[in-house]
TrEMBL record:
Coiled coil: none annotated. This is Xylulose kinase. Residues 293-476 form the Carbohydrate kinase FGGY C-terminal domain. It catalyses: D-xylulose + ATP = D-xylulose 5-phosphate + ADP + H(+). It comes from Branchiostoma belcheri. The keyword Glycoprotein does not apply. InterPro entries: ATPase_NBD (IPR043129), Carb_kinase_FGGY (IPR000577), D-XK_euk (IPR042024), FGGY_C (IPR018485), FGGY_N (IPR018484). Keywords: ATP-binding, Carbohydrate metabolism, Kinase, Nucleotide-binding, Transferase, Xylose metabolism.
């Protein structure tokens, strides 16, 4: 894999647009960003979005994303970045968001004038000016309609990898076709945020990729084609507005001449399919078969690599962005660091040191005491409340402080393992846990994670993992995904740091405890 080129990753995320360039050894050489709220105040967004008065609808101005790209590239040019060295670029977009290109916009995209900004030329190219984004929760009716049309929630999950979720694109499209038919009819192409961004660079409509397309409730994730029952249930004439989905590592062709003329990109710079931000993160974290990535933040997120997925009513299964025969899964937990902090305050004198001492002073399995701490409405599963059980499954009102601390941490990780296994993951000899996020700096917490999964835990700096992952994917696509595996391309990337390994007998303690935890969780979720 020779070459002295550079590879550019772009991330069109909720609050900013970011670029990272890496050299041939995948070392970061440039970073740049535009913050929507502060750099483009004329759009008056908060966190990159507009929260509507109904308390459910959340959108972002499509033209703001276009203007942000003008600003980002101008900043990079002004800083002296040499665009001519970029061999290929790829990117991500916040998942589920959608862009509605007005009839006739293709011609404008194909004939961009280098003496004008993208914004000047494209600002009136969208039949829906405010794109629905992933924070929207206004389409519950459309979710139920879609689930009913295809045979129920589990059937929709079996087809598309997820039950109906309000933020998923099919339900947003259905809402627009039902409530704003003129805008829907005056739209010749619907893009995701990722394929919209790719279209800007390609100077033509870019296709939706399999991985981000898996977040729409429209793609049959086994066939990797649009599901006809889902298309027909969603909106009339939808398939022609979407075009056909493609693998997430396709070389879409050369960059639009607009960028060569205006910024000095090489005319031969290749555009590699863009994908969703979580898929980009999987690439940036360099997950491979057998890996689980655990992001321990305000909400906890699990990224799984799956070979044989089992779609369920919780979690999401997407086509894998770097391996055309594999899948990935996402599990999101609302009760994350705030819950850990609450127990730290109530049972460890608000001290992480005492929190850690409590974990060190209590045995694996906590003498049979199990806790489920859903302070706020949990989404995995849909349940709420704090529930404590003693070794004979009797509900108890409280635990001693140290037992409470361990019950919380073990409960959170037993939940993650139970739901991961429900989606088709199996803990085995090649399991690696990659930990990131605030709590990954606490070795005692990581020790419990390692024991529950009976696997080594590595620490990963995933700052900008989505953007970095796309720079990696750009090189993979440029080299030719049919010629080289993604894992080979990223071999030279910085190594993970081994943090902890499982305690002796961890397997004997936690393998049976996972089943017991799941039974207790089902019991409280069923309430
Ligand atoms: O909704 C989500 C995943 O399903 C979020 O992680 C968005 O992708 C954030 F942009």
């Amino acid at each position: 894999m020779s070459g002295n080129g550079q590879y550019l990753g772009l991330d069109f995320s909720t609050q900013q647009i970011k670029a990272i360039a890496v050299d041939d050894s995948l070392k970061v050489v440039t970073e740049a960003a535009v913050q929507f709220d502060t750099d483009l105040p004329e759009f008056r967004t908060q966190g990159g979005a507009h929260q509507h008065d109904d308390g459910l609808t959340v959108t972002a101005p499509t033209a703001m994303w276009v203007k942000a790209l003008d600003m980002l590239l101008s900043r990079m040019k002004a800083s002296g970045f040499n665009f001519s060295r970029v061999k290929a670029l790829s990117g991500t977009g916040q998942q589920h968001g959608s862009v509605y290109w007005k009839t006739g916009a293709a011609s404008t995209l194909q004939h961009l004038q280098p003496d004008k900004t993208l914004y000047e030329q494209l600002k009136d190219s969208f039949s829906v000016e405010d794109s629905p984004i992933w924070m929207d929760s206004s389409t519950t009716a459309q979710c139920r309609q879609l689930e009913q049309a295809v045979g129920g929630a589990q059937k929709l999950a079996d087809i598309t990898g997820s039950r109906g979720y309000e933020r998923f694109t099919a339900n947003q499209i259905a809402k627009i076709s039902q409530n704003n038919r003129a805008a829907y009819d005056n739209c010749e192409r619907i893009s995701l945020v990722s394929s919209f961004a790719a279209s800007l660079f390609l100077g033509n409509y870019a296709p939706i990729d399999h991985s981000d397309g898996s977040g729409m409730n429209l793609l049959d994730i086994c066939e990797r084609k649009w599901s006809q029952p889902c298309l027909q249930a969603c909106a009339p004439g939808l398939e022609e507005k979407l075009d056909q989905p493609v693998p997430s590592f396709e070389n879409l062709g050369s960059i639009s001449a607009y960028y060569a003329d205006r910024y000095g990109f090489s005319p031969d710079c290749k555009v590699i399919t863009f994908t969703g931000d979580n898929s980009g993160s999987l690439a940036g974290m360099r997950l491979q078969q057998g890996d689980i990535a655990v992001s321990l933040g305000t909400s906890d997120t699990l990224f799984l690599w799956l070979q044989q997925p089992r779609p369920a009513l919780t979690g999401h299964i997407f086509c894998n962005p770097v391996d055309g025969h594999a899948y990935m899964a996402l599990l999101c937990y609302k009760n994350g660091s705030l819950t850990r902090e609450k127990i730290r305050d109530s049972s460890a004198d608000a001290s992480w040191e005492k929190f850690s001492q409590a974990l060190q002073s209590t045995p694996m399995g906590n003498n049979g005491n199990v806790g489920i701490y859903f302070d706020v409405q949990e989404i995995t599963p849909y349940a709420v409340g704090v529930h404590r059980f003693n070794s004979t499954d009797q509900k108890v009102e409280s635990f001693p402080p140290a037992v409470e601390v361990r019950a919380l941490v073990e409960g959170q990780f037993l939940a993650k393992r139970a739901h991961a296994e429900m989606l088709g993951y199996s803990v085995g000899c090649n399991t690696r846990v990659l930990a990131t996020g605030g709590a990954s700096s606490n070795t005692s917490i990581l020790q419990v994670l390692s024991d529950v999964f009976n696997a080594p835990v590595y620490i990963l700096d995933t700052a900008n993992s989505a953007c970095l992952g796309c720079a990696y994917r750009a090189k993979h696509g440029w080299l030719g995904s049919s010629k080289v595996q993604f894992q080979q391309v990223v071999q030279g990337a910085p190594e993970y740091k081994l943090a902890v390994t499982p305690s002796p007998n961890a397997k004997q303690v936690y393998d049976p405890l996972v089943g017991r935890y799941k039974r207790l969780e089902d019991q409280i979720a069923g309430q």
